[in-house]
Amino acid sequence: MKVFAQFVAAATDVSHFPAPGPPEIAFLGRSNVGKSSVINSLLGNKVARTSSTPGRTRGINFYAIRWPGRPRPDLFFTDLPGYGYAKVARELSAGWHKFIEPYLKQRPNLALCISLVDPNIPPQPGDQQLCEFLRGIGRPHVVVATKADRVSSNQLQPSLQRLKEALGTESILTYSARTGQGRDALWKQIRKCTGAQEPDPETTAPPADPYGDASRPS
Ligand SMILES: Nc1nc2c(ncn2[C@@H]2O[C@H](COP(=O)(O)OP(=O)(O)O)[C@@H](O)[C@H]2O)c(=O)[nH]1
Ligand SMILES: [Mg+2]
Questions:
Q1: What is the reported pTM?
Q2: CB atoms near residue 201 (< 10 Å)
Q3: Is 54 part of a structural domain of the chain?
Q4: The CATH number of the domain where 122 resides is what?
């Protein structure tokens, strides 16, 4: 079903965060791992900017997500700055203490952290640190291996097994923003963690149409 998504704010300071609203889903991972692409693929829309230049997202970008027929957003998605590139490491580590760590620790409506990893490369130290950190603060989180379309089918299982061992997780969802693989499974996880329900198309009244058949001048 179609969803509406709207950019709300880019925050590089706690004071820029929008007031806590509906359940929020955070997308985390290395620069260039495919965070913005996963967001766009879930939404079926190009709301999040993607780039082949690492380290473009310096702040937390907040997006309001709404299903048709709803007066207010059902969810927020947040696209977090990527880690893992030396060039942006110093700036990011300042940002980590200033607004990223406070966001992850204190945001009251943060319902799920989606930690994106790349199954095309060996497990990265930054990914391990992030998973340990999220476990340590008790945030629900799920690991998603994206860009799965780039891994040959006989490489995928061994790669997922290495990631599971390195990250200390029993399950990893596979995803491809290019093919849409894993999209339904990830939406299912999001709904499970947030209680967000798509409106039932049978019971959702369509918006009033002033030019509907009954009122159309003859
Ligand atoms: N083949 C393939 N490429 C992808 C996929 N997801 C992202 N990319 C590419 O990887 C690059 C970085 O993606 P982006 O979403 O901007 O990464 P971010 O920095 O984590 O937000 C872009 O060139 C994307 O086109 C995917 O599932 N498959
Ligand atoms: Mg991005």
A1: 0.89
A2: 10
A3: yes
A4: 3.40.50.300
